[in-house]
Design brief:
124 residues, disordered N terminus, DUF3060 domain-containing protein, DUF3060
Length: 124
């Protein structure tokens, strides 16, 4: 019975190269976790560059962040307050639920949902 448990534990150290595994980065630019095709960014008072590559989705939480997002984001959800976020392109949907956020996207024609308060969302 003990050898079966030990055998089961040896399989736990698998070296799979599955690219859908969560990955995380943190540092002076904040915390970013990617799960599947969605990037989750949450921090306070940071300046950071985020890459949506070609069609990833992005969730932003936290406050007082200045973010520059490159690539093409499919769906974007922004919570928190007082964030300044600039996107290269948003394709499908842009939802802002926080307060006092300034969001600019340069390209794309997303469905825009502003369910927060005092947000500024513009294409430019």
């Amino acid at each position: 019975m003990l050898s079966a448990a030990a055998l089961g534990l040896t399989a736990c150290g698998s070296t799979s190269s599955d690219t859908d595994q969560p990955s995380a980065t943190a540092g002076s630019s904040g915390a970013q976790v990617e799960i599947g095709n969605t990037i989750n960014y949450g921090s306070f008072g940071t300046t950071a560059d985020i890459d949506c590559a070609d069609g990833k989705s992005l969730n932003v939480g936290g406050s007082n962040n200045t973010l520059t997002v490159t690539g093409t984001c499919a769906n974007v959800n922004i919570g928190g307050a007082d964030n300044k976020i600039t996107f290269d392109r948003v394709d499908a949907e842009l939802t802002v639920v926080g307060l006092n956020n300034t969001v600019t996207y340069r390209d794309g024609d997303p469905k825009v949902n502003d369910t927060g308060s005092n947000n500024t969302i513009s294409k430019g």
